[in-house]
């Protein structure tokens, strides 16, 4: 039986698990599998392993392969597994091939490392990555990889470039990208994701330009709240969406902004608060301030109360 394309399988809550480390700092695939299993059982529609929240930058190729294999084994075909990849083109291709060998269903291509490339360089980079394996690729637009509408339209012609995840937050640019792809490739099923930190905060704005998918970091540590938000958002219950934004997601974003790297380290602290010891973050990230972790704990409790 032919597996449907990735674009046909990504619909619902997108789960970006953290990567688990043991007391000695080494990779702990058993705890990682428990984290992935909990997310899938909690309603995740896809697992994005070893991406930004999963500290892709901190993993060796061997650790990366072990993590992706663990996620694939835990998913067992129930939901697709998308693996991160990045750095320069040669290393991105190497990680992509490791992910393919591990059984991943697709790739999330993070920005090239260090350099500030032009549009032609970005087009060549993502095209080479898509040519390197049989996996569908989602391009992650953020930081030094901001794409012009014409570049995205050109990339959308590639049969294995399946979509764009936006981490920039420029709605004018996103509207022009959506329009350019629609014009250049009418009928093409090209996916768009809201990939901003605490993406729930901007879901209503993105939905206005036709972008309904989003990544949920909160699902890692507050799955009940994230699932309730998604049900409300998907069902058009904007009153509940706004209540959760005002009472949980906006305060969460404000707490996240209190420290560098909190988009990862605070999420990981939240997972530990739920009783799963996934360890700390690896340098150059550092642990969140203890007072901020206490704030997070209280905020999650307030968020749960909102569901009642």
Model description:
With 308 residues, this protein is of the alpha/beta class. Helix content is 46%, strand content 11%. It has eleven helices and eight strands. The protein has helices at 29-41, 61-75, 89-101, 119-132, 149-155, 171-184, 203-207, 223-234, 238-256, 262-273, 290-307; strands at 14-15, 46-49, 81-85, 106-109, 136-141, 161-166, 191-194, 213-216. Strands 1-2-3-4-5-6-7-8 form an eight-stranded parallel barrel, surrounded by four helices. Helix 9 (238-256) runs antiparallel to helix 11. The protein is globular, with a radius of gyration of 18 Å. It starts with 13 loop residues before the first strand and ends with a helix. Belongs to the DapA family. Its EC number is 4.2.1.41. Pathway: Carbohydrate acid metabolism; D-glucarate degradation; 2,5-dioxopentanoate from D-glucarate: step 2/2.
Strand and helix map with partners:
Blueprint: E1 14-15, H1 29-41, E2 46-49, H2 61-75, E3 81-85, H3 89-101, E4 106-109, H4 119-132, E5 136-141, H5 149-155, E6 161-166, H6 171-184, E7 191-194, H7 203-207, E8 213-216, H8 223-234, H9 238-256, H10 262-273, H11 290-307
Parallel strand pairs: 1-2, 1-8, 2-3, 3-4, 4-5, 5-6, 6-7, 7-8
Helix pairs in contact: 1-2, 2-3, 3-4, 4-5, 5-6, 8-9, 9-11, 10-11
Enzyme class: lyase
Catalytic activity: 5-dehydro-4-deoxy-D-glucarate + H(+) = 2,5-dioxopentanoate + CO2 + H2O
EC number: 4.2.1.41
């Amino acid at each position: 039986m032919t597996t449907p394309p990735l674009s046909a399988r990504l619909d619902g809550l997108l789960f970006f698990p953290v990567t688990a480390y043991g007391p000695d700092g080494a990779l702990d695939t058993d705890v990682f599998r428990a984290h992935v299993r909990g997310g899938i059982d909690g309603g995740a529609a896809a697992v994005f392993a070893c991406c930004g929240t999963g500290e892709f930058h901190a993993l060796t190729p061997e650790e990366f392969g072990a993590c992706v294999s663990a996620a694939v084994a835990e998913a067992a075909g129930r939901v697709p597994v998308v693996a991160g990849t990045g750095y320069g083109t040669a290393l991105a291709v190497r990680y992509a091939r490791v992910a393919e060998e591990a059984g991943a269903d697709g790739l999330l291509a993070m920005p090239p490392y260090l350099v500030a490339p032009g549009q032609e360089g970005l087009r060549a980079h993502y095209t080479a990555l898509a040519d390197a394996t049989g996996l569908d690729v989602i391009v992650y637009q953020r930081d030094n990889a901001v794409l012009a509408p014409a570049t995205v339209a050109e990339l959308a012609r590639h049969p294995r470039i399946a979509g764009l995840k936006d981490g920039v937050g420029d709605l004018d640019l996103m509207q022009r990208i959506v329009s350019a792809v629609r014009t250049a490739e009418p009928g093409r099923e090209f996916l768009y994701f809201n990939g901003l930190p605490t993406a729930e905060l901007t879901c209503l704005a993105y939905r206005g330009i036709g972008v309904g998918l989003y990544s949920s970091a909160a699902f890692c540590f507050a799955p009940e709240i994230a699932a309730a938000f998604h049900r409300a958002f998907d069902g058009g219950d904007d009153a509940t969406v706004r209540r959760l934004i005002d009472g949980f997601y906006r305060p969460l974003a404000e707490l996240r902004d209190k420290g560098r790297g909190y988009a990862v380290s605070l999420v990981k602290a939240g997972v530990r608060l739920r009783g799963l010891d996934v360890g700390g973050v690896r340098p150059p990230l550092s642990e969140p301030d203890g007072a901020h972790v206490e704030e997070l704990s209280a905020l999650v409790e307030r968020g749960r109360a909102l569901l009642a």
